[in-house]
Every structure is written in C-alpha cells, then in structure tokens.
Amino acid sequence: MDLLSFINFYLVPGIVLGAIYSLGAIGITLVFGVLRFAHLAHGDLATMGAFLVLALVSLLGMNPWVALPVSMAATAGLAVALHWLFYEHLRRRSAILTVIASLGVALMLRAVVQVVWGVDSQTYVGGITRPESYFGIRVKDREFWTLAATAALVVGLQLFLTFTRWGKAMRAMSDNPDLARLSGIDTRLTTALTWTIIGILSAAAGFFLGINTELKSLMGWYMLLPMFAAAILGGVGRVEGAVLGGMVIGIAEECSVLFLPSEYKSALAFAILLIMLAVRPTGLLRGKVL
Amino acid sequence: MSHTQTGSPILSVAGVTGGYGSGADILHGIDLTVGRHEIVGIVGPNGAGKSTALKAIFGLVQVRGGAIRFDDRDIAGWAPNRIVRCGIGYVPQVDNVFREMTVEENLEMGAFLRRSGVEAALQRIYTLFPDLVEKRRKPAGSLSGGQRQMVAFGRALMLDPQLLLLDEPTAGLSPRYCEQIFQIVRDVRAAGVAVLLVEQHAKQALSFCDRAYVLASGRNRAEGTGQGLLADREIAQMFLGG
Lengths: 290, 242
Description:
The complex is a heterodimer of chains A (290) and B (242).
Chain A: H1 3-35, H2 42-60, H3 64-87, H4 95-117, E1 132-134, E2 137-139, H5 141-163, H6 165-175, H7 177-182, H8 187-212, H9 219-234, H10 239-256, H11 265-279
Antiparallel strand pairs in A: 1-2
Helix pairs in contact in A: 1-5, 1-8, 1-9, 1-10, 2-3, 2-4, 2-8, 2-9, 3-8, 5-6, 5-8, 6-8, 9-10, 9-11, 10-11
Chain B: E1 11-19, E2 27-34, E3 39-43, H1 50-57, E4 62-70, E5 73-74, H2 80-85, E6 88-91, H3 103-110, H4 118-128, H5 145-157, E7 163-167, H6 175-190, E8 194-198, H7 202-208, E9 211-216, E10 219-225, H8 226-231, H9 233-239
Parallel strand pairs in B: 3-8, 3-9, 6-7, 7-8
Antiparallel strand pairs in B: 1-2, 1-4, 4-5, 9-10
C-alpha cells in the first residue's frame, strides 16, 4: 500500500473520527474538571443533538449546517435543564450517586430518541458525495467542514477559558471550588455556564458523527467509551489533552483494521484506556483532578 | 508608634455561639473586638475553636446566638459572598490559592465582584508584594510557601477590605518564612487594613500582635496586649506550653 492510499483510506477518516471524539471528550473532561463526576449521559446527549438537527432538516427543510447552531442552543438548554432536574440535588452527596443518576438520564434520553425517531438508521441528506482531491489527498466537503468547525470550537473555547471573566471563573471553580465560593464567584451561574458549553459541544459531536456516518439511536452510547478513553488518555481536566486523546483514539481505531479484524475496532479504545491507566494514570498531559 | 484601639472598633463580636451544620456548638459565647488598623491575634490550645471563631465571622459556620457587628452592621448569619462585599477578606489555612492559575489570575479572581478599578487594585497588590511582579505569569502552585501566602493575601485584598481574617497563616511554614509572613501582615496593616489572625505558634504571635485573645473550649479565657499575655505566668503555663 502506498502512502497516499494510507492517508486517504485510514489517516483522513481517523482524523475526522478523532475530531468527533475530541469534541465529546472535551465535554466529559469539563464535567469531570468543574463538577467532579463522570457523566455517562454524554453520548446520549450527543445523540439528542444529532437528532434535533434531523428534526429541523426534515420538518423545516433546513440545511443541516444551518440547523446545527439551533440544535446546539437547544441541546445546551437541555443540558442545563438535566442538571437542575437530576444532578443538582445530589451535589452534596457522594459523586457515585450522580454518576448513576447520569446513567438513568442516558437511558431516558435514548428512549425519547427511539420513541420519536424510531430505531432505524437515518441520514441528513441522501445520495453519494464525491471527495475533492487536494494534491492526491481526497477529502469530502463534509469532512473538511467537520475539521474546520472542530478547530473553531476548540480555539474559541480555549480563548474563552483563558481571557474572559466567566471563563476564568470556570477554571477557578475547577481548580478550587471552596476558594472560588469565598472569592464571591457565583458557582450556580458558573455551573449553568459549564453545562451550556457541554451541550453545545456534544450537539456538535453528535451532528458530525451523524453527517459523516449515519444517525442511529445508539450512536452516542457507542461513542461513550472512546470519548472517556480520549479524556483520560489526554489527562482529565485538560481541554488540549482531550483533543490530543481524541485524535490518538480516532486514528488508532481507523488504522487498527490494518492489523486486526474490524470487529475489534471498538475494543481498541478499551485496550488503550487500560494500558494508559496502568502505565500513566494521570494521562499524557498530566490531568488535574482525580 | 502605638496601634492600640482608637475610636469605635471596626469589628465587635459579642456572645457568639454556633457550630458546623446541625452539629453540636463549638463556640460557647465568644467576645472580641478589633480596632481600625489593629493586629489582633487569637491563640489557644488545639480544639479551642480558634479557626471556628474566624469562620463564624466570615459566615462559614452556623451562628446560633450573639451578635457580629462590622462597621455598624450586624453581619451574623450573612452568606460569605455578602460579607466579602461589605469589606472583610478571608484567607483560609490550606488550599488558599488557585494552583493551576497564574498569580495575576489569582488576584483577578479576588476581584471577581468588582466591575471597575481592577487594574488599580492589581497595582496596589504589586506595590505591597513586589516579589509577585516577576511571577505574575507563573502558576501559583509553582511558587514557594511564602510567595504563595502573598498570593493568598493578595487575592483577599483585591476588594480593598477594611479587615483581613487570616487562618493560621504560618502553618506548615519554616521559621524563616514565618518571620516573612509576620512582616507581610505588618505591611498589610501599614496599608490601612485591620488584621485578625489565628495562630498556632502562640509565643511568636503574641510578641507581634497588638492585642490577643486566648480561647479554650470555645470560650474566652484571657485577653490583653501581646506582651501582657506573654508575661502572665498562669496563661503561659496553661495555654502557651510553659
């Protein structure tokens, strides 16, 4: 196999998948970093975001890319609502209760998707898209835009966290919640803001998975393990770590079919996660919490 | 120059009782006052309720009885973020900086409640603690113990409080740093802020406070000038380790 075929058939799809995992892993790392629990409903929140885009496309005939921001806003609202309904009153109890509650939320979200949209695979737009060739490297339009949008979201989030008052408040709450409270930072607002960002990112992750493959009611649930593996691999609590981890897992999964039967593709994330936890549990970029 | 109390005190605590959550009372009627520009210490054996008294003033402990007057307002039972707004800064004993954030970001978080004058407040802190200027872009967690305390003090001073509460500022620091911390406290007072601090190193603290209170079992046991308490043989034997 020559280099170009490797790039076209393994590397490019791996990077696209990695971008999708990155967006999910950032959300997971934010929940872990700011709110200190493992959010098992994250994949199904992404599924919900993906199907909300489908609703806008099929009911209003919107272009999926135009519908995405609407779905992001709706998923953000949903994430904030889920927090107040199911997680907030468990805040003072052991974190494992919130984790289990989030598993229940995951099952509920999945059930809603299955009741409303059914269990069959669906797509945003029919037909076959031909990739454009850039010096022999073939990239489809939707793949290009997935990468561009992911980059924009990641850079935007980093700028927000580094330079704005509320972004710094989020980092302060992640760093030392008691001291944040003593400094007069409104932790309720900061929490709501965190969920808003998580909703936006998971809607994007679900939509990109849906537009690059297809929409299924279990699409997000199956993405949960690789997303967690990516967050832990990169170092929990670190946005740049989540991106790095997502890329490693995405590319490794796509390249694994060179050596392993494709049925083992999803086991690979699990293997990487196990090795990482055994060798360097703080992650590649040294996570902050845990 | 004497810094003994002049005019009405800025803080007066009278008969305060209370404890954590719904648990038993730890404070059984504490009385103390802090004058403007005064450094007042709270000393006493372990479990005397020293830190609890400080937390009660800052609203971190359930106050069930008594009055806490600050600047002519009764602040007993107020939430900490309301107390911080009216001019009291609090520096916890441990975990008192944002480790992953830079020195400057730590200070900015101290000014979270203030909409204007942040730049001027930063300059005041850098004038007070010149060591921090070159470290402003470094994560607070990477600093030495003494410099980290400067960041912690600086964060609490960003809202221009009139009173600073320090919970065992020298805990876990080597003697060399202790002297540095006491000097910082004097500098803070020189900048016009009254200081109420809890100290484990009672003898050192008494020799540098204007006045001090000795607490035991959640009650006042003695009070006086630092030097006066040090000279009191009975107090020294009972509470200050001979």
